Amino acid sequence: MKLFDPHIHMTSRTTDDYQAMAAAGIAAVVEPAFWVGQPRTHVGTFEDYFLSLLGWERFRASQFGIRHFCTLALNPKEANSARLADDVVALLRRYLDKDGVVAVGEIGYDDQTPAEERIFAAQIELAREFELPILIHTPHRDKKRGTERTLALVKETKFPPALTLVDHNTEETLPLVLDSGCWAGHSIYPQTKMDEVRMVALVKQYGSERIIVNSAADWGVSDPLKVPKTAQGLREAGVDEAAIETICWSNPVRFFAQSGRLDLEAPLSIDQRRLWEGNSVLRGQTPRVD
Amino acid sequence: MTDWLEESLAEARRGEGPFIRRWNAAGRKLGASADDGRARLLRAALEVLPADEHVRLVEELYRTGELRERVALLKALPLLPAPERFVEVGVEAVRSNAVALIEAVACDNPYPGRHFSEEAFNQMVLKCLFNDLALGRIQGLPDRRTAELRRMVAAYASERRAAGRSVPDDAKLVLEEN
After folding, report:
1. Is the pLDDT of residue A192 over 80?
2. Chain A CB within 8 Å of residue B95 CB
């Protein structure tokens, strides 16, 4: 079964991860622009980051047979950087039309400040203008209130729920998101957020419609194999194969295909002899050519 | 011509904002003919932009472009009005390590033969040798062979031989008299 990790920050991961992901069946990933751990102090840093998501990281993934797409946005945490926020939102206009951009994201609330709300709303309008879906991060602190405020803002702005993926859900937020008509993402993490056992219970209760799982793996303690591990957990719990495929492949494909830019058909031959900006991902190994 | 390109040419003449959106989308809209389409879009945009803004726009397109966009821009350079103004973009591309960018400038493109300085042209010939790009694809090479270029290529051939490596066959296009 082909698997899709619709939220993973590959820029922070190694080539070992890419190899293990491909071996476990992951055929496509979406990398949302996010908080890189270190606060950025110049708009130009964002520009180089966006360009690396559109170029270098896509090339690196392709070397392991994985299709790489991205979402671009100013993340909620850095929406509080008054000196940068408006300039980054303006910069996005330059990049949102480019090939490989399948949504505006991650946007949303972190501390749930007025500054975050203003930038969140501004980026919903960008998504409307550029005809893209939105990927929404929900806060880890005061999550239920943050999710309620998120859904209220989506409704107030009349952004279509079918084009909205609300991520990092828990037992307490999932029913709210499903009732709103939005898609519901779940980040399966080693300790925090959501785990495989709890995810199995949610699928048994709510089914597979508009349910999505991802690893949200990044520079912290996280696991880029959480989508295959969750698929296996669902299988062992007796969930039928069709439902597993819906959750781990078809749902993210249907959601991001609404961008009109999720090209899963173009030939993607693995040829590690290729160079990108002159840098090979290999360090003396024999290139793999399929 | 596709309806999309026709409509986009009109959009490009409306101003820089509408032009950028069409430029960015051209890859998925035009597929195999995207490079040609982008050249036409850029020419249309420059028609309505004051001449003293042209270099800024072209340099900005290069800086903010992903790889395919940059290739299209470099192939379009000889088709732009007063093309000698954009020589820095071409030289910068040859300075990169992306083979696709070097190739877009150096190969099957009259631009460097017409507009590069001797120093920049010679560096480009060397970059082609280093990256296995056939010198036969450099337009105008016979007219730009100088004593300095011959010296540089001969030194490269000597270095290769000293290291026990082969010398690309087409080095003779520079080294040998016609």
Report:
1. no
2. no
State the best of B23, B28, B92 to mutate against chain A, taking most chain A CBs within 10 Å: B28
Instruction: Evaluate if residue A3 carries a pLDDT over 90.
Output: yes
DSSP H/E element including B91? helix B87-95
Q: Is A86 left (phi over 0), alpha (psi -120 to 50) or beta?
A: alpha
pLDDT band at A271; cut points 50, 70, 90 = low
ipTM over 0.85: no
Contact (CB, 8 A) for A112 and A77: no
Answer whether A54 sits within 8 Å of B66, measured CB to CB: yes
User: Residue A136: which residues within 8 A CB-CB, separation 6 or more?
Assistant: A105, A106, A107, A108, A150, A154, A164, A165, A166, A167
Q: What is the mean pLDDT of residues B86-107?
A: 92
Sorting pLDDT into bands at 50, 70 and 90, what band is B29? very high
pLDDT digits (tens, 9 = 90+) for A51-101: 999 888 888 898 899 999 999 999 999 999 988 999 999 999 999 999 899
Q: Which residues contact A93 (CB under 8 A, 6 or more apart)?
A: A126
* Cβ pair B28:A97 closer than 8 A: no
Sheet bearing A3-5, strands edge to edge: A3-5, A26-32, A67-72, A101-108, A134-137, A164-166, A183-187, A211-214
Q: Which residues in B lie closer than 8 A to residue A100 (C-beta atoms)? A: 66
Is the pLDDT confidence value at A290 over 80? no
